[in-house]
Design goal:
With 354 residues, the protein is α/β, with parallel strands linked by helices. The chain is built from ten helices and ten strands. It has a five-stranded mixed β-sheet, with helices on both faces. The protein has a five-stranded mixed β-sheet with strand order 8-7-6-9-10, with helices on both faces. It binds 5'-O-[(R)-(carboxyoxy)(hydroxy)phosphoryl]adenosine (KG4) and zinc ion (ZN).
C-alpha cells in the first residue's frame, strides 16, 4: 500500500505491507515556512505540498525498495484538514491510482491516528475499543466497534490539547516546538507539579467532552496576575525554578483532564453493558512522557490492552493512513475518481441514548 498524507503542514508518504509492516515512512515538515507566522498559513502549506509531494513519494518508494509496479493500492488522507492541503494529496493519489490501474482508498486522518498504535505490531486489534486522539487539531474519544465503525463519544469544546500545550509554551516563552519543550521542562527531576493549583476541567459530572481554555487562561493569570478592584494580584517571575514547576503543574492538570474523561467513558459504557477490551491512542500529544505513562496505567487499573503509537507515528505521518487504508480495503471499501477532499470532521457522533 502506497499512502499519502497532506492534511495540514506535513507532506508524507509511506509504503506499508499487510497494514502493519512499515517499509518506509517519509515526512517532510514545513515548519520553517510557517515559523514567522506562529501558525500554519493554509495558502503557503498547499503550495509547499505541491512542491514536495512527488519527491516525497519517490523517496518513500526508494526507502522501501519497491517500484511503482509493485504497489497494490493507493491510500490517501482525504479528510478532515485544510482544504487546499488535502486537495494536493487527493489529486496526487488519484493520478497514481488511475495511471497504475490500482484501487484508491480515502482514509479519515483522525481515524488513522486511532489506528497508529497498531503499526509494527502483530497483535490483533481487540474490539470494542475506546479510541483517544489528542493532537494539535483534535482532542476526542471514540467508540470503535471495528475499523469501519467508529463513533465520537466526546470532543473538546474549545482548544485541542496540543494547541493548549503550544499556547502555554508560547506564554512561557519556550522555543518551538512548544509541546515537546514544555514536556521536557515538566519532566525535569527537580520540577514540582503541585506548586501551582491549576484547574482540571470536568464540564459536568457526566460529560465526556473536554475543555482546555480555562486551564490555559489560568496559566496566563499565573504569569501576568489577575486584574481586580484592589489592584488584583501580580504575576510570577519566570525563573528556571518557577518555569519548571509551572510546566509540571500544567502537565499534571492537562493529563488529569484526559484520564478523568477516559475513566468516565469506560464506566458509562460498562453501565450500558459495553466492556472495552482495548484503548487505542494516537495524535501528537501521545508523544508526551507523562500522558504515555498515565495511559499505560489503564492496563492495570481497567484491564485494557493499551495501544500507544511508537514515537515516530504520534505526529502526522502517512504510515497510519496506509495501515488503516489496508484494513478498509480488506473490508471491501474502495473509492473511485470522484473521491473528494473534505475539510470537515466526518466520524459521526454517537447517537444520544445509544
Ligand atoms: O498529530 P499532530 O502532528 O498534528 C495534528 O494532527 O494536529 O500533533 C501536533 C501536536 C502539537 O500541538 C505539538 O505541540 C503536540 O502535538 N506535541 C506534544 C508533544 N509532542 C508533540 N505535546 C505535548 N508533549 C509532547 N511531548
Ligand atoms: Zn494529525
Amino acid at each position: 500500500m502506497l499512502a499519502l498524507e497532506t492534511s495540514c503542514d506535513e507532506t508524507a508518504a509511506a509504503v506499508v505491507r499487510d497494514g502493519v509492516d512499515v517499509l518506509s515512512s517519509v515526512v517532510a515538515s514545513q515548519y520553517d515556512l510557517h515559523a514567522e507566522y506562529a501558525g500554519v498559513v493554509p495558502e503557503i502549506a498547499s503550495r509547499a505540498h505541491v512542491e514536495a509531494i512527488l519527491p516525497v513519494v519517490r523517496e518513500a518508494l526508494e526507502h522501501a525498495g519497491v517500484g511503482l509496479g509493485m504497489v497494490d493500492a493507493i491510500a490517501v488522507g482525504n479528510r478532515p484538514g485544510l482544504i487546499g492541503s488535502l486537495l494536493v494529496g487527493v489529486a496526487a493519489a488519484k493520478s497514481l491510482a488511475w495511471s497504475l490501474g490500482k484501487p484508491l482508498i480515502g482514509v479519515d486522518h483522525v481515524a488513522a491516528h486511532v489506528y497508529s498504535g497498531m503499526l509494527e505490531s502483530r497483535d490483533p486489534a481487540m474490539f470494542p475499543a475506546l479510541g483517544l486522539v489528542v493532537s494539535g487539531g483534535h482532542t476526542a474519544m471514540y467508540h470503535v466497534a471495528s475499523w469501519t465503525q467508529m463513533h465520537r463519544v466526546g470532543a473538546t469544546i474549545d482548544d485541542a490539547m496540543g494547541e493548549a500545550y503550544d499556547k502555554v509554551a508560547m506564554m512561557m516563552k519556550l522555543p518551538h516546538p512548544g509541546g515537546p519543550n514544555l514536556d521536557q521542562l515538566a519532566s525535569d527531576a527537580r520540577a514540582n507539579d503541585k506548586v501551582f493549583d491549576l484547574p482540571v476541567s470536568r464540564l459536568s459530572t457526566t460529560s465526556l467532552d473536554f475543555s482546555f481554555s480555562g486551564l490555559k487562561t489560568s496559566v496566563l493569570y499565573t504569569l501576568r496576575g489577575v486584574p481586580g478592584e484592589r489592584g488584583g494580584t501580580s504575576g510570577i517571575a519566570l525563573t528556571d525554578e518557577t518555569s519548571r514547576n509551572l510546566a509540571a503543574s500544567f502537565q499534571r492538570a492537562a493529563c488529569k483532564a484526559v484520564t478523568i474523561k477516559l475513566t468516565r467513558a469506560i464506566e458509562q459504557a460498562r453501565e450500558k453493558g459495553v466492556v472495552y477490551r482495548s484503548l487505542l491512542c494516537g495524535g501528537g500529544v501521545t508523544a508526551n512522557s507523562r500522558l504515555r505513562r498515565e495511559l499505560l496505567g489503564f492496563e492495570k487499573s481497567h484491564g485494557l490492552v493499551v495501544r500507544l503509537p511508537a514515537m515516530r507515528y504520534c505526529m502526522d505521518n502517512a504510515a497510519m493512513i496506509g495501515g488503516l487504508g489496508e484494513q478498509l480495503l480488506r473490508s471491501g471499501r474502495r473509492d473511485d475518481m470522484s473521491l473528494q477532499a473534505t475539510p470537515t470532521i466526518s466520524i459521526p457522533a454517537v447517537q444520544q441514548g445509544a
